[in-house]
Task: inverse folding
């Protein structure tokens, strides 16, 4: 991502803005969604050995109250989330926000920028290496997509604090980390990276750090300003953002300057309801049923985790019972639905376009495909994806729970359990592990033509491992998109673009797979073979028309042309010489 280009409205722009009419304030646009305003508010403060931030939890509570006072239909507040809880709340909010008029996500806590990409830090994140970022943190892109179904989307990040992880990453990553790849605060985002109807606001300008406030302060300066401006009724949210900027600058003596970027039309958007609204209930029955229906649809499409997440949101009651029954059905039929019967035929042009759109030669993409998954598009003869279940990874992800009871499926020792030779045997092995722990078994398996691990679903652009695998089963194009997305998330796209096969294998397959260079050499050889196959010789020059000899009717001296390596001038000279010889013989 490329973050904030400029503030939404400068003071001069605000002065020239025409206030909306009373008619505009009292009515919503006809295409403004279903009328719901929904919000997810997160505050992370208890960062363990790195210390406790002063205000994020209090800031989250203050902002959540302000959103409720503004007439929001549903406000979900969560604090001190580890990565699993963070992902679960984002997945569930994606379903809540679908179809809403306005969706807001607010995050207060630690965030950082690495390689120009922004990451939010959950609790208990292992931040000793830059390579850990896709596995241990939340990319800001994921928050943007979590609101994709709403008409208007607002992301507010109070995550521009001093980064305590930067030193740990620099010391732990070694030569793999380039100089100056991490900066203070967050990186800017360009307007081109935003979906339609989006507004993003930072607590301070890109590359700067924001104040967390004093221990004696109830809230940080930015949160105080935001909570004061949010309930303002009948004011377009761009002007609300301008008011937050003015208040924050006033509270910090002009030192902290919030920035905003947006992709909005001319129609005004109001965060606060036009009229007083009743206070939101904690679990509105309409919202609960809507959440269940969307989770059920997701389960029918292969995302069983959606129903499991819903059970966590509703730990008891009717919705929990419905979600539990639907989850059991989804899980029991999940592997059977990965048969590939509904697979979309391969579209080579579309696959090549995925590569070209990201600055990668199609031959480069296909070289990786051939080495990782063979030449059959990552599918076995029976139509199912090629897979490789990893017993050691399954053991680690289940905290060694099954090492003793199921030693043929789970082990902490590398190589102790040999890989099955046939795909049928590998699917049987996966099915046995799936019966123990469905989601973890899927996460501990490599899938498809690029052999992407299920656990890397976030980097591939999906909300859960089960959703990821169900999607790539249906399409080779989906596999290519997931691969490119994951390669971007681990910072390896540059290596692919430069044909740095050793660097790519190091990042994509891991340091141990790149030690002897064999995998990189195979990819380089496949690439060279593909380039030779697609080489096309330049066309020969056009053959000139026959030259007629007017002195001898009917006598024609054809010019048969010359090989492409000879010049047209030389060919003409040969014709002239032949013509002269004929005339001399005729004269004799």
Result:
């Amino acid at each position: 991502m490329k973050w904030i280009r400029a503030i939404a409205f400068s003071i001069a722009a605000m002065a020239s803005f025409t206030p909306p009419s009373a008619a505009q304030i009292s009515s919503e646009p006809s295409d403004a969604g279903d009328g719901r305003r929904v919000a997810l508010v997160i505050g992370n403060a208890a960062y363990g050995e790195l210390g406790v931030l002063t205000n994020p939890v209090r800031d989250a509570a203050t902002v959540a109250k302000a959103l409720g006072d503004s007439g929001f239909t549903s406000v979900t507040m969560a604090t001190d989330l580890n990565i699993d809880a963070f992902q679960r709340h984002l997945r569930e909010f994606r379903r809540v926000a679908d179809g809403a008029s306005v969706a807001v996500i607010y995050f207060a806590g630690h965030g950082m920028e690495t390689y120009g990409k922004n990451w939010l830090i959950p609790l208990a994140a292992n931040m000793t290496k830059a390579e850990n970022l896709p596995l241990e943190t939340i990319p800001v892109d994921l928050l943007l997509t979590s609101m994709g179904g709403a008409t208007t989307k607002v992301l507010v990040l109070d995550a521009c604090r001093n980064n305590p992880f930067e030193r740990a990453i620099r010391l732990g990553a070694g030569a793999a980390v380039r100089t100056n790849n991490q900066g203070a605060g967050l990186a800017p985002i360009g307007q081109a990276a935003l979906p339609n109807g989006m507004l993003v606001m930072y607590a301070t300008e890109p590359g700067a750090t924001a104040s967390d406030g004093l221990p004696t302060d109830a809230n940080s300066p930015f949160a105080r300003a935001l909570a004061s401006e949010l309930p303002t009724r009948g004011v377009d949210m761009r002007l609300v953002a301008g008011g937050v900027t003015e208040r924050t600058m006033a509270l910090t003596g002009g030192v902290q300057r919030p920035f905003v970027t947006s992709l909005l039309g001319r129609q005004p958007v109001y965060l606060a309801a036009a009229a007083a609204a009743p206070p939101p209930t904690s679990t509105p029955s309409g919202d609960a049923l809507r959440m269940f229906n969307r989770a059920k649809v997701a389960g029918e499409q292969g995302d069983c985790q959606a129903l499991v997440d819903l059970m966590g949101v509703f730990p008891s009651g009717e919705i929990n019972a419905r979600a539990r029954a639907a989850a059991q059905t989804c899980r029991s039929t999940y592997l059977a639905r990965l048969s590939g019967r509904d697979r979309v035929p391969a579209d080579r042009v579309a696959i090549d376009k995925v590569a070209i759109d990201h600055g990668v030669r199609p031959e480069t993409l296909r070289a990786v495909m051939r080495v990782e998954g063979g030449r059959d598009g990552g599918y076995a003869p029976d139509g199912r994806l090629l897979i490789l279940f990893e017993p050691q990874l399954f053991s680690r992800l289940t905290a060694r729970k099954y090492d003793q009871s199921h030693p043929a499926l789970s082990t902490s020792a590398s190589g102790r359990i040999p890989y099955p030779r046939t795909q049928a045997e590998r699917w049987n092995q996966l099915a046995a592990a799936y019966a123990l722990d469905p989601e973890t078994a899927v996460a501990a398996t490599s899938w498809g033509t690029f052999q992407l691990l299920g656990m890397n679903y976030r980097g591939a652009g999906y909300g859960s491992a089960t959703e990821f695998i169900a999607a790539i089963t249906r399409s080779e194009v989906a596999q290519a998109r997931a691969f490119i997305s994951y390669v971007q998330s681990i910072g390896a796209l540059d290596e692919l673009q430069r044909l740095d096969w050793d660097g790519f294998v190091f990042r994509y397959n891991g340091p141990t797979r790149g030690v002897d260079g064999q995998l990189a050499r195979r990819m380089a050889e496949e690439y060279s073979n593909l380039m030779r196959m697609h080489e096309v010789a330049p066309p020969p020059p056009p053959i000139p028309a026959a030259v007629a000899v007017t002195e001898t009717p009917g006598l024609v001296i054809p010019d048969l042309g010359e090989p492409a390596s000879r010049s047209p001038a030389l060919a003409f000279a040969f014709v002239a010489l032949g013509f002269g010889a004929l005339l001399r013989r005729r004269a004799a």
Observations:
- The longest helix spans residues 568-587.
